[in-house]
Design brief:
This protein is α+β, with helices and mostly antiparallel strands. The chain is built from four helices and five strands, in the order βααβββαβα. Strands 1-2-3-4-5 form a five-stranded mixed beta sheet. The longest helix has 16 residues. It is globular, with a radius of gyration of 16 Å. Bound molecules: coenzyme A (COA). The site of coenzyme A has 20 residues, from helix 1, strand 4, helix 3 and helix 4.
């Protein structure tokens, strides 16, 4: 494991590696609850979606790299909330992931800084995200960096 970690924006050349890391993040959630179950053609869907988002000014992908390998990334995008609310412009963190060997070294904290920069750049009113209630590592990361819990998502399986 190399010690030096470099940070920078992703490009379309990083697409396949980003899709592979996104799969690790998504598979970990599949183990938590059926709600997060993935479709059979999941990789194809992510590839199409990421290709569009990598080209969009309303999205931001930022990488942590070590020894030429991507060891973490963050993906944020602009989302507009429903029109009844005054503050509708949201910067949303969709993904943040760090490879297990590189965790607890401040990589996510550094990537998170970029989400705040992105939020300012797009003049968002709020920075928002969803996190599973059992994900203590992520919840700690977010609360330590200025976010607070606001809503609870309630779900039930319809049978
Ligand atoms: C959550 C995750 C991104 C954190 O990455 P990381 O690079 O290890 O985080 P950092 O080293 O920047 O840690 C920042 C803070 O997060 C919290 N944190 C990180 N890992 C933690 C853990 N295992 N347990 C408790 N708190 C943790 C701590 O408060 C930490 O600050 P500290 O080290 O000063 O105590 C990483 O564990 C991960 O990729 N998890 C799987 C993917 C995931 O769940 N993503 C979030 C989806 S919402």
């Amino acid at each position: 494991m190399s010690d030096e970690i470099n940070y920078g924006p992703a490009t379309i050349k990083d697409l396949d590696k980003l899709v592979a890391l996104q799969e690790k993040l998504a598979r970990a959630h599949e183990d938590i609850d059926k709600f997060y179950s993935l479709q059979a053609n999941f990789q194809k869907q992510v590839k199409t979606f990421f290709t569009e988002q990598l080209a969009s000014k309303n999205s931001m992908f930022y990488l942590a790299q070590s020894g030429g390998k991507i060891v973490g990334y963050i993906f944020c995008m602009y989302k507009e909330w429903i029109p009844i609310f005054k503050y509708r412009k949201h910067a949303t963190i969709l993904d943040i992931y760090v490879e297990p060997d590189y965790r607890r070294r401040g990589v996510a904290k550094r990537l998170f800084v970029e989400s705040k920069r992105f939020a300012k750049r797009i003049s968002a009113d709020f920075l928002v995200l969803d996190v599973d209630v059992s994900n203590t590592a992520a919840i700690n990361l977010y609360t330590k960096n200025g976010l607070k819990p606001l809503m609870t998502k309630m779900i039930m399986r319809v049978e």
